[in-house]
Design goal:
By secondary structure, the protein is an alpha+beta fold. The protein has eight helices and 19 strands. It folds into two domains: 187 residues, D-amino Acid Aminotransferase, Chain A, domain 1, CATH 3.30.470; 143 residues, Nucleic acid-binding proteins (OB fold (Dihydrolipoamide Acetyltransferase, E2P)), CATH 2.40.50.
Amino acid sequence: MKLAVSPPVLPMLAKRIDALPPGDDWLFEPKWDGFRALIFRDGDEVLIQSRDQKPLNRYFPELVAPLQAGLPEKCVCDGEIVVAKGGALDFDALQLRVHPAASRVKLLSHELPASVVFFDLLCEGEHDLTTEPFAARRKRLESVLRGAKPPLFLTPSTTDRATAADWFERFEGAGLDGVMAKAPSGVYEPNKRVMLKVKHDRDCDCVVAGFRWHKSGDRDAVGSLLLGLYDDTGDLQHVGVCASFTMAKRRELVKFLAPYREQALDQHPWRSWAENAADGDGGQRMPGGKSRWSGGKDLSWEPLRVELVVEVAYDHMQSGRFRHTAQFRRFRPDKAPADCTYAQLEVVAAQELAEIFGKRAQG
């Protein structure tokens, strides 16, 4: 490829803040929950590059022709690959698209077609735009995407704080991840956290049903706590992990958890998963299960008697599990494990994505 900005390029990143930043000089956008992607086009040649500089073309073949038809002959765009299903973004469905079997990828490209939402333009024609102010890049992006059709979309943008706050509340139920704040004068800085992101943050009390050792391998520090919530039938479901500890706290937890390890499997609700993991069964989604997302990590776990309750902070829940690693707040000795149910979670009604995606979002 012969472009003014040549691959590979690391995308510009964002740092998290607790609320919309003060002041009026900001451009706000919805924060999309998908796969970050840089799109390079040089004539008939298209490269879809992941955040970690890997090619994604083979996983999203249905996007190549629309990108050739809807983008300038020579350009580099920054955006997010998403899958809209049932009126909301579906990250689980998006993950399914990254499959090693070509036949499976082809099938899913028809059953779960992806879209691209664009929010930046790094070059157009022979012009490198990375040193241009973001406000100027945004205007150029709006111009080049004026005739674009689904599955290519331009992200909404506003300078109005009230609109941004409304997006933060309304769009969460549709799977969006928060709100981005960008300085209109900012240049494009690869791999630097110069943008700002405001994400949802909530508290939840969970059962601590087990733990994993720290990756150091010495078994003298806890890596993460395995969290559970009771569903309507009384079954304890694995909902994720929390792992935000200092090394001193990790070592302290080994002693703290030791009494709860005694005879932990005798009445453990996840006993069968522990036994399957011990037998080398990697087909389970529960603790000990391996998948192509585990990257070869050791996911073996140590069961604990289901007696401890921990308060954690989380930003988003999808398909009954925490979308990201939860943050440890404190242990709750005053809380009974039986009270740790899905009912305590705040449920936000889904806002249809029709305002952004049109009829295609209706799945």
